[in-house]
UniProtKB/TrEMBL annotation:
Classification via InterPro entries: ChlB/BchB/BchZ (IPR050152), Nase/OxRdtase_comp1 (IPR000510), Nase_comp1_CS (IPR000318), Nase_Mo-Fe_CF (IPR005975)
Function description: This protein may play a role in the biosynthesis of the prosthetic group of nitrogenase (FeMo cofactor).
Keywords associated with the record: Nitrogen fixation, Oxidoreductase, Plasmid
Superkingdom classification of source: Bacteria
Molecular function as annotated in GO: oxidoreductase activity
Name of this protein: Nitrogenase iron-molybdenum cofactor biosynthesis protein NifN
Source species taxonomy: Bacteria, Pseudomonadati, Pseudomonadota, Alphaproteobacteria, Hyphomicrobiales
Pathway stated in the Swiss-Prot or TrEMBL entry: Cofactor biosynthesis; Fe-Mo cofactor biosynthesis
Family: Belongs to the NifD/NifK/NifE/NifN family.
Domain Nitrogenase/oxidoreductase component residues, every copy: 19-428
């Protein structure tokens, strides 16, 4: 069991953590027709929007209640009402997701009560829009908590309560915030290959291909529909990916009776095997040929990758679920986890981490702990640390703004694990080839 070391510094140096409200906004963007609104100052929303646009390389529909000095002192109910009503009239969203920031939360306002009053006073204007509140102050938690709280709030507000007739072919998937567009698409294709129908909440893959259309969408396009969220209780099984999704799975089970199965990760041979056997037992069908071929290809990649990764020292900094995902992957390939840094100590998955200690901290802590490492694994803000340490950087998580295609990197199941082995192996090999040969002097240049 890993020992969790809490942070002791008063300020973050090269921060690792990204805030809760941004995580909640990302989750709301996985609902078709959704409009996330950050209940706070305009500057808070602008900062979050910049990170999201740089990461996704496309425009993101994110709005704000634009609290100012007066509303921060006197109360922000009027700002919240004006934002909800005006934006509903302008954009016609199917769902309005309210993500609270520290500025709104520190006043300890009855925001839930304000929303009830707003919906009652403007029932006609909001008749086609669901309004969902996620309490996500910046001063606590990180992306994972915000994502989890938003999904839980969506279920509690929209899903029909009570036990219903089950469709044996329908299963609910709760993906974690660390899953990419490619991960979700591959997850859907794999489930459908077993003859099952997945209902993925939230589905972040829906709007990833809309930029080329050249049209600005003021609300999220693609993803899970509100009608599908209402009908989650008709599924026969729920699969939650990541400890962060335990809370939504428990909420769904409590409201509808749908049982759930937890996967801390879908990366790696053992996790992919367990997932395939679960789908086989639910569908009562044989494992498809494409899945079997993917397993054989992963085994071949593991044989080749061990020669490059065995004994390599790895330092990882990420959110708890993603930290566990990649730590387990590297350990399975024979590498050594020499440094583990995360954003929050609340996740129980940290206790399962294959490491002696886990530091809750920032990228400066990672740099200090990774003085004798062979590879850094974190998001794009770790590039300066990797440069100073003269080691390669594997970019994961949020944000990745200095590379393109990050959302289309596959990291799960047989095929994704195979691709990760090749990516890491090539990073290590390229770094080794770049190093000057040992015990070989550079010949002097003779001038005639």
């Amino acid at each position: 069991m890993a020992r969790i070391l809490t942070k002791t510094k008063r300020a973050a140096i090269n921060p690792l953590k990204v805030s809760q409200p941004l995580g909640a906004a990302l989750a709301f963007l996985g609902i078709d027709g959704a409009l996330p609104i950050l209940h706070g100052s305009q500057g808070c929303t602008s900062f979050a929007l910049v990170l999201m646009v740089r990461h996704f390389k496309q425009a993101v529909p994110l709005q704000t209640t634009a609290m100012d000095a007066i509303t921060s002192v006197m109360g922000a109910a009027d700002s919240l009402e004006r934002a909800i009503v005006e934006l509903a009239a302008r954009t016609r969203p199917r769902l309005i997701g309210i993500c609270t920031t520290a500025l709104a939360e520190t006043r300890d306002e009855d925001i839930a009560g304000d929303i009830v009053n707003i919906k009652s006073a403007h029932s006609q204007e909001l008749k086609d829009s669901e309004v969902v509140l996620a309490r996500t102050p910046d001063f606590a938690g990180a992306v994972e908590e915000g994502w989890s709280k938003a999904v839980t709030a969506i279920i509690e507000a929209i899903t029909r309560h009570g036990t219903r007739a089950r469709d044996p072919k329908k299963i609910v998937i709760f993906p974690g915030s660390n899953m990419t567009v490619a991960d979700i698409e591959h997850l859907r294709e794999t489930i459908e290959s077993f003859g099952l129908t997945p209902m993925i909440l939230p589905d972040a893959s829906g709007g990833s291909d809309l930029t080329a259309s050249g049209q600005w969408a003021p609300i999220a396009r693609g993803g899970t529909t509100v009608e599908q969220v209402r009908d989650l209780g008709a599924a026969s099984q729920c699969i939650a990916v990541g400890e962060q999704m335990r809370r939504p799975a428990e909420a769904l089970q409590g409201l509808t009776g749908v049982p759930y199965v937890m996967f801390e990760s879908l990366t790696g041979l053992n996790n992919a095997d367990r997932f395939a056997w679960l789908l086989k037992s639910i569908s009562r069908n044989d494992v498809p040929t494409t899945v079997r071929r993917g397993r054989l290809q992963l085994q071949e990649a593991m044989l080749g990758g061990h020669f490059l990764l065995a004994g390599k020292k790895i330092a990882i900094a990420s959110e708890p679920d993603q930290l566990f995902q990649f730590a387990q992957f590297f350990i399975s390939m024979g590498a050594l986890l020499t440094a583990a840094v995360t954003t929050t100590s609340h996740s129980t998955v940290l206790q399962l981490l294959p490491a002696d200690t886990v530091q809750v901290g920032d990228l400066a802590d990672l740099e200090q702990l990774a003085a004798d490492t062979d590879l850094l694994v974190t998001h794009s803000h770790g590039r300066q640390a990797a440069e100073r340490l003269a080691v390669p950087l594997m970019r994961i998580g949020f944000p990745i703004f200095d590379r393109i295609g990050s959302q289309h990197k596959l990291n799960i199941l047989y095929r994704g694990t195979r691709d990760m082995i090749y990516e890491v192996g090539n990073l290590v090999q390229a770094d080794r080839d770049r190093q000057p040969p040992l015990n070989r002097s550079i010949p002097a240049v003779q001038v005639s």
